[in-house]
Amino acid sequence: MAHQVLITGGTGLIGTRLTTLLKERGYSVAYLSRRKENIPGVTVFRYDVATNFIEDGALDGVEHLIHLAGAGVADGKWTTERKKTIIASRTETIGLIAKAVKERNIALKSCISASGSSYYGQDTGDTQHTEDAPAGKDFLATVTVLWEKAADQLAHLGVRTVKLRTGVVLSKEGGAIPKIALPAKFGLGAPLGSGKQWMSWIHIDDLCRMYIEAMENSDWEGAYNAVAHPPVTNKALTLHICKVLGRPQFLPNVPAFALRLVFGQMATVVLGSNYVLNHRITSETNFIYEFPEIKEALENIFNS
Questions:
Q1: Which pick of 124, 244, 251, 254 has the fewest CB atoms within 10 Å?
Q2: What is any Pfam family matched here (predicted)?
Q3: How far is it, in rounded angstroms, from Cα 19 to Cα 10?
């Protein structure tokens, strides 16, 4: 019988690719979703936090939980209500699952939860962060701290819990790269703000393989910086994208004040600098990156 994996947020960018890789390895995959959907090869169970409801059968035989659910931080301006949604979407679902696991005595082997490199702060300049660095104090850092505390509810029940603090995910299917690449395709690529801000990144396939490795290897536990090394500046990333696309990059930087006028507080998503080191990945695990260099990662994304 195939090993059963339950994923929250399974229809998103990471969940979609991760599902493909899990099924290729012979896993049986199910989703826990707010809406009943018809997804080929995947059983979808519904849940509702407001009514404390999880559809019958959702947790039956589940060995591994992968928690990816969370409203996109760059999908809308950070109004008070939007901020509440960003936090609740990451914490309430796994809280509901933890309650059900405790009440029903579910024997989960692992919980692998998404987290963010923003744990250390939205804009930390050139400061280098390993996993033992303290949490930041701004909004995204607060979101990430609460996100990890929610996942720890399962750790407190004796479930081996791993939190992957993820940087910018490189994929042509979504996320930041298509947005950055679109103007570059028309010869309009330009760094944002100073262009000197650090961007800690990872190719989506390496990230998904990391989830699987964390799930399968019982030595993994706690928080890991799920990024490649080294990070790149926003200017370098823009230049690499232009080179891979065969387009010029000669426009001046987009001023930071203009981005703040358009996006408000949310502008820190692209203007903030985060230099995050994958210390635990490289020193404590045998994980091997398929795309350790930014150039080959982008070539794979745009030429595949």
A1: 251
A2: DUF1731
A3: 8
Look at the chain and count its residues: 304
Cα gap 149→113, rounded to integer Å:
11
**In this structure, what token pair is assigned to residue 54?**
């999880």
Residues 18-31 pLDDT 10s: 999 999 999 999 99
Say how far residue 74 (Cα) sits from the centre of its chain: 13
User: How confident is the model over 138-180, as pLDDT tens digits?
Assistant: 999 999 999 999 999 999 999 999 999 999 999 988 887 887 7
CATH architecture of 4-236+261-303: 3-Layer(aba) Sandwich (3.40)
- What residue spans define the domains of the chain? 4-236+261-303
288: Cβ contacts below 8 Å, ≥ 6 apart: none
Which residues lie below 8 Å from residue 168, measured CB to CB, with a gap of 6+?
Answer: 175, 176, 177, 199, 200, 201, 202
* Cβ-contact 230, 126 below 8 angstroms: no
Closest by CA position to 170, among listed 97, 218, 227, 248: 227
Nearest-10 Cα torsion for 213, 61, 3, 221: 10
DSSP letter at 251 equals S
Calculate the CA dihedral of residues 139, 143, 146, 148 and round it to 10 degrees: -130
- pTM tops 0.85: yes
**What is the rounded distance in angstroms from the CA atom of residue 84 to the CA atom of residue 78?**
9
Which residues fall within 8 angstroms of residue 292, CB to CB, at 6 or more apart? 228, 229
